[in-house]
Backbone:
């Protein structure tokens, strides 16, 4: 029997984009079982646009919030009421590309142990109009990565959520999206699923992420006070018994590199992070900060000597004989 796919979408004042987003979803070669859109008390004409799709295609459903609840609340609600074997959380301002659903679900069908499938991210800067294609370079062909192999492969990277189709049962088993992590909830959920069940990867761009100034994630990350509060909760969550089995993979994959020096600052300023496990999560970032500081204060002649020794020792085909 053909696996089914649920597509969910939370919308708040995305009238300029949601029409194209829904058109791209409904024109996919692999047709979803359902497309559930929840409008989060929009004040523009989003609802009228969505309603046109509801009237023209029976798989599209519209739910409406009386007040703004936030995208994470909506995603968890729609996760519970959806019924597909697979689950895709689409942003109202993003756009899936041709073949996305079919290629992702076909690969996951070949690896039933996998919890999700992702592909290379491509983004559109709404302000400049520049399209950026960032290759993950995990492999040159569609592949499955076990949790152990993924941790070695990530090397401080991330799983692009807008390209990720998740096995719905796996997402339910981890409790859905951690609301306390706010704009990092999907980042965290993707990693937890991947580190528990493994992940499939397709080395091509299959979904477009739109970089919009003032979006939920951009605004949150730029607010240092709120971002620090979220990162403190992330440290606490990772050290809880619930995530004990994936904690070692977070260390090996160096995934806290995603937050750079912000993660280090939070750990230093928060006494709850003054422990071995927190240190292990950010040890590479701490070392990077130390090297950056030493590079700043070290005299140029000393740097030149260091570079000479380093280049000599690590030169290609260099052989040192001991007599």
Residues:
């Amino acid at each position: 029997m053909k696996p089914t796919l649920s597509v969910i979408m939370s919308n708040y004042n995305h009238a300029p984009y949601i029409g194209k987003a829904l058109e791209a979803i409904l024109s996919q070669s692999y047709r979803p079982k359902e497309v559930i859109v929840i409008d989060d008390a929009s004040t523009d004409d989003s609802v009228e646009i969505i309603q046109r799709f509801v009237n023209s295609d029976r798989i599209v459903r519209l739910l409406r919030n009386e007040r703004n609840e936030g995208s994470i609340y909506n995603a968890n609600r729609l996760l519970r009421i959806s019924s597909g074997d697979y689950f895709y959380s689409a942003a109202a301002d993003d756009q899936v590309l041709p073949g996305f659903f079919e290629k992702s679900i076909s690969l996951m069908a070949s690896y039933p142990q996998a919890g999700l499938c992702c592909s290379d991210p491509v983004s559109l800067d709404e302000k400049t109009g520049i399209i950026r294609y960032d290759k993950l370079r995990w492999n040159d062909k569609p592949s499955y990565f076990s949790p152990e192999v993924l941790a070695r492969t990530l090397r401080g990277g991330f799983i692009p959520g807008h390209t990720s189709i998740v096995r719905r049962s796996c997402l339910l088993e981890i409790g859905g999206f951690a609301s306390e992590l706010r704009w990092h909830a999907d980042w965290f959920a993707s990693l937890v699923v991947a580190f528990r069940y493994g992940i499939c990867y397709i080395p091509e761009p299959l979904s477009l992420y739109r970089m919009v100034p003032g979006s939920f994630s951009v605004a949150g990350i730029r607010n240092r006070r709120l971002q620090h509060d979220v990162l403190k909760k992330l440290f606490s969550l990772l050290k809880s018994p619930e995530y004990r089995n994936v904690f070692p993979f977070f260390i090996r994959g160096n995934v806290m590199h995603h937050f750079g020096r912000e993660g280090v600052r939070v750990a230093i300023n928060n006494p709850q992070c003054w422990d071995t496990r927190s240190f292990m999560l950010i040890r590479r970032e701490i070392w990077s900060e130390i090297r950056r500081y030493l590079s700043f204060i070290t005299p140029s002649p000393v740097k030149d000597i260091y570079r000479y020794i380093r280049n000599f020792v690590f030169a290609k085909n260099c052989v040192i004989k001991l007599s």
In short: The longest strand covers residues 199-211. Strands lie at 5-11, 34-39, 60-64, 86-91, 95-96, 116-125, 131-133, 143-145, 165-167, 199-211.
